[in-house]
């Protein structure tokens, strides 16, 4: 039986996390979309005002997967939640229950922090959807994601400056 451990990410994990982000982008058919650098991750994960946290899964003592997350807030619940931005297990390490262990660790962290929910988004074609449903996540069909980026974001921001 393989040994899998889950631990909080440390600054010396930034290079591994970036490698996993790039592998995830390739899996999601966007191999050239990653703009993040190791310095960005160090600044935003371990700098003076951290914007995310991460968990690292190790298989036999070697990093094999990660979960990157941050807090959101439910006005209806009056409590924080956790948003799972990225979950990825290296192809070489799949089949050892690492994904489930990472999500379970995140659920435990949410419970410990009195968070009332764990949210994530999944591409409609991603086979991981079956995994998420098996462990109890529910697709929220009535909620549609929207995003403002790039020039549209800058144009709207300019309105606030006028």
How would you describe this protein?
The protein is an alpha+beta fold. The chain has one domain (4-161): 3-Layer(aba) Sandwich (Aminopeptidase). It is built from five helices and five strands, in the order E-H-H-E-E-E-H-E-H-H. The protein has helices at residues 14-27, 38-46, 98-112, 128-134, 150-161, and strands at residues 4-8, 53-59, 62-74, 79-89, 118-120. It has a five-stranded mixed β-sheet with strand order 1-2-3-4-5, with helices on both faces. The model has no long low-confidence stretch (mean pLDDT 95).
Strand line-up of the largest beta sheet: 1-2-3-4-5
CATH topology: Aminopeptidase
Q: In this structure, how is the largest beta sheet organized? A: 5 strands, mixed
**Structural class, please?**
alpha+beta
How many domains, as an integer?
Answer: 1
- The first-level CATH class is given as Alpha Beta
Q: What proportion of the residues form beta strands (DSSP E)?
A: 15-25%
Cα end-to-end separation: 63 Å
Using only CA atoms, what is the Rg? 17 Å
**Strand elements, count:** 5
Supply the number of helical segments.
5
Give the overall pLDDT as a whole number.
95
The residue fraction in helices comes out at: 25-40%
The CATH architecture classification is 3-Layer(aba) Sandwich
Q: Which regions contain 5 or more consecutive residues with pLDDT less than 50?
A: none
What is the assigned CATH homologous superfamily? Gcn5-related N-acetyltransferase (GNAT)
């Amino acid at each position: 039986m393989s040994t899998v451990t889950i631990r909080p990410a440390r600054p010396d994990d930034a290079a591994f996390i970036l490698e996993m982000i790039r592998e995830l982008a390739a899996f999601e058919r966007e191999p050239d979309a990653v703009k993040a650098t190791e310095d960005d991750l160090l600044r935003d994960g371990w700098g003076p005002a951290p914007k995310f946290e991460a968990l690292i899964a190790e298989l036999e003592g070697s990093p094999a997967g990660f979960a990157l997350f941050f807090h959101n807030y439910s006005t209806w619940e009056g409590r924080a939640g956790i948003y799972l931005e990225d979950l990825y297990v290296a192809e070489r390490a799949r089949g050892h229950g690492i994904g489930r262990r990472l999500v379970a660790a995140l659920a435990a962290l949410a419970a410990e922090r009195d968070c009332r929910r764990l949210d994530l988004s999944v591409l409609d074609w991603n086979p991981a959807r079956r995994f998420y449903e098996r462990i109890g996540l529910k697709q929220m069909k009535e909620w549609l994601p929207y995003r403002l980026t790039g020039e549209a974001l800058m144009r709207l921001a300019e309105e606030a400056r006028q």
